[in-house]
Structures are given as C-alpha cells and as structure tokens.
Amino acid sequence: MFSNEKTAKILGYAGLIPFIILSIGSWIEIPYIDNAVYALITYAAIILSFMGAVHWGMAMSKIDNKQNKYFIVSVIPALAAWFSLMIPELFSIIVLFIGFVALISYDLAVDELQGFPNWYIPMRVKLTFIVVLSLIGALVSLLD
How is the chain classified by DSSP, letter by letter? Predict the structure, then answer.
C-alpha cells in the first residue's frame, strides 16, 4: 500500500490530466467534447473549491477554537469558483487564474501556521504552475 504522501502525489499529478487535455482541446477538436474551454472552466472550478476545502479540514483538525479565519478563508475559493461558472468564459478563466494564484499565495503564507506536511507546499506549487499554464493556454485560445 502507498504512503499518504505517495497517494496524494499520484492523485494530485493525475488530476492535472484534464487540465492539460482540455487546455489543448481549447485549440484543437477533441472527440466527444463539445466545448473544451467550458469543460476546463468547470473542472478548474471544482478543483479550486476542493483546494479551498483543505483549509476547512485543517481548521477542523485543530484542538483550539482560534481557527475561525481558516474556516472563512476556506469558502472563498468555492464562492469564486461558483461565480466563475456564471460569467462569460473569458472572464471565468481570469477569475479562476486569480483564484489559483491567490490560493497558492495564501497556502505559502500560512504553511507553518496550518502545519501542512512538508511535501504538501512543494507539490502544490508544481501543480498550481501547470494549472495556471493550462488556464493561460485556454485564455489565449479565446483571444485568438
């Protein structure tokens, strides 16, 4: 059986596959996908929500009652993601881009306070880099 770290990394990197394929699909036709940009936006919104929920989970795992700010921050990515699904695609990608960049910036700022495992932030930085590149690729396809 895999360690928690190995399992998280396998799932995390596998989670990049839709980002990469759908970003490419914003430029070329992919069989069975009518709108790769919308599919990318939807997937990115789900993942942004999921990543924000990490802070909810970390706050729940703490014994003290001083974790309210982490609960509050944890719902902001979900709200941004939900909003991104209701606006034109061009703006959706921009909102999601800002959301992922803001969340990794926040993660870096609270790393020690939250007590993430030592492998988490390096993995998140790499994953976010690919996510952001994928979103930029789709954004550029819309401007073309």
Answer: ---HHHHHHHHHHHTHHHHHHHHHHTTS--TT-S-HHHHHHHHHHHHHHHHHHHHHHHHHT-SSS--HHHHHHHHHHHHHHHHHTTS-HHHHHHHHHHHHHHHHHHHHHHHHHHT--TTHHHHHHHHHHHHHHHHHHHHHHHH-
